[in-house]
Amino acid sequence: MGIIPKMPGLTGGGSRSASIYYPSNGTAGETFPLIVYMHGGGTGAAKGYPLQLPTIAAFGFVVIAPETCQALPPTCNALCLFPDPASQGCAEGWGREVLNAVNGAREHPSVHPALGLADFSRLGIAGHSMGGMAAIAAATLAGQAGGYNIKAAVSQHPNLVPKPNVTAPVLFTGGTKDTTGALGWGNQMFASQGISGIKINYVIEGATHLEMMGKHTPTGLPPWQNREDAVVAQFLACHVRGEGCDAIYGESGHEVCTHEWPGKSHTALATCKVDNYPSLNFVV
Questions:
Q1: What local confidence, expressed as pLDDT, does residue 161 receive?
Q2: CA distances from 64 to 33, 46, 115, 151, 251 (A)
Q3: What whole-number distance in Å separates Cα of residue 3 and Cα of residue 17?
Q4: Is the model's pTM score more than 0.85?
Q5: What are the domain boundaries of the chain?
Q6: H/E run at residue 230
């Protein structure tokens, strides 16, 4: 893990630094797909996701996680084109910041040696809450602009993008005890015709808005473990790296599937629905 003190391209205020995670065991000349991860409002990337971001990197990715003016209170709406945070304009503003991070990394690789390992032809975008909204908005904008080969997007407990238009595979995650409205917004986007490619809606029983931070309803799991990291990383590995898809998509053809966490046999801890994929069973 490293820090980029000033991430080129960011426009939304705040420190404009970025955390960067990357594999340390690659072979000479090996490159890794790039993941840009956008944090949620009031959390910050480095402090908010200390387990999830290195887990993604361990699956063979360079991960950039920018810090924005939404990282710590007082937060801001500097990237919203309109004052209503639920408007399409707000989503577009944060989506552009994700693409700004991609552009800055691609155009200024000297800001960190790990960017020399990044394969910009294979790109994934992800985020939580506000950042989950930003991921869907960025995928929408990238499709309109061209020049970005977004292979997959992950939207964890997201704010709403009213008019998504994404053809790349998308994973939505949510929790049954998330009281922010994110579960409903994720369900709405999953059901939207604007998310037209392969898509998964992964809903975790008892999870709150901060499941990936280890702040979940007790389920017998140790406090440092959550039920999203491996699923998010494996989904990205499947669709961005093209590896390990059997861990995501089974062969039984069921539309609604149940994921039983190791050590919790016969207790359904999460359910998921998969659309637009020929094999519809989710197996981990």
A1: 92
A2: 11, 10, 9, 16, 34
A3: 7
A4: yes
A5: 2-245
A6: helix 229-236
